[in-house]
Design a protein that fits this description.
Layout (H helix, E strand, L loop, with lengths): L1 E9 L5 H14 L7 E8 L10 E7 L2 H9 L1 H13 E10 L2
Antiparallel strand pairs: 1-3, 1-4, 2-3
Amino acid sequence: MVVHIVMIKFKESEEKMAHIRRAKELIDALVDKVPSLRSMETGINFAREDRAMDLVLTARFDDRHGLEAYATHPEHLKVIDFIKSVAEYSKVVDYETL
């Protein structure tokens, strides 16, 4: 199993919370659109620390090939385009489990 975790910091704006909610909706919808995606969990942060990120996703795949198929899937690329337009930056961790 491969686990893919992404944490996203959104740009400060009056629409920031709407952007976060929209990103979450788009990410959650990928489960039904990307065959290699086994599960997706997303969460909107409530911590108010300076180091806190705004949104996190945890995706699971059977293997690295599944993650690669997800990374280039057209529906995923649409989500990335939206997130890039409203996010300040993101961080990622990918790892294998037994």
